Amino acid sequence: MKLGVLGTGMAGHAIGTKLVQMGQDVMMGSRSSTNEKAAAWVKANGPKASQGTFADAAKFGEILFNCTHGMASLDALKLAGAENMKGKILIDLANPLDFSKGMPPTLAVSNTDSLAEQIQRAFPDTKVVKSLNTMNCKLMVNPSLVRGDHDVFVSGNDKAAKSRVTEILRNWFGWKSVVDLGDIGSARGAEQLLPLWLRLVGALGTANFNLKIVK
C-alpha cells in the first residue's frame, strides 16, 4: 500500500519508519521536496521510503497521516491540497499545543471545538479519524513498551474509515484495545487529555506510560 506521512518531526519519523518496516511504500511530505529531516529519514529507511512536498505525499498516499505540529496543521493540509486528499482517510495525530507563553503549553482549541473538527470542516471530502494523539510517539507504534493492556482511541464520522484505522492500529502497530469514542466531536475529549498527559510526564519523570479504561 502507498501511504503518505505529513510532517518530519518525531511522530512522522516514528510512524513512517514503522510503516516501512511493515512493508508499505511511504512518502514523507513537508513544505519542501528537499527537506533535510525527510532526506535523512529516506536514507535510513531504504527504497520503500521517499520524500516530497505535502502535496506530493497527499497525492501519493492511499491513506494519510497528519503528523504536523498542531498549530500549523491546517496550513500544512491546505498545502497538501483538498483535491489530493479527497475521499481518503486522514489519520490525525496532531494536538493544538500553543507554546507561545512557555511551558506547559496550552490548548489553542478546546471545549467547544477541536483541531480534528476544524480539519474535517476545512476538508469535508476527507475522512478524518483522530487517533494516537494521547501518547508518546514511540508508544504509538510499539504499545508493548508499556506492560499490560492499555488503550488507544479513535474518533470520526465515517464508520468504515474508523474500522480501517482500527485494523491498522491492531495489525500494523500492535494495539489490542481500540476504544471508539464516537463521531469527530469526541476528538475534543482526546485532545483535552493533553494537559493531563503533560502533567503526568512531569510527575512520573517519563513519557513511557499510557491510559487504561477500567469498568
UniProtKB/TrEMBL annotation:
Keywords, ordered alphabetically: Oxidoreductase
MF term (GO), any: oxidoreductase activity
Domain of life: Bacteria
InterPro entries on file: NAD(P)-bd_dom_sf (IPR036291), P5C_Rdtase_cat_N (IPR028939), STEAP_metalloreductase (IPR051267)
Keyword match rRNA-binding: no
Name of a matching Pfam family: F420_oxidored
The keyword Oxidoreductase belongs to this UniProt entry's keyword annotation: yes
Gene3D superfamilies: NAD(P)-binding Rossmann-like Domain
Protein name from the UniProt record: NADP oxidoreductase
UniProt source species: Candidatus Segetimicrobium genomatis
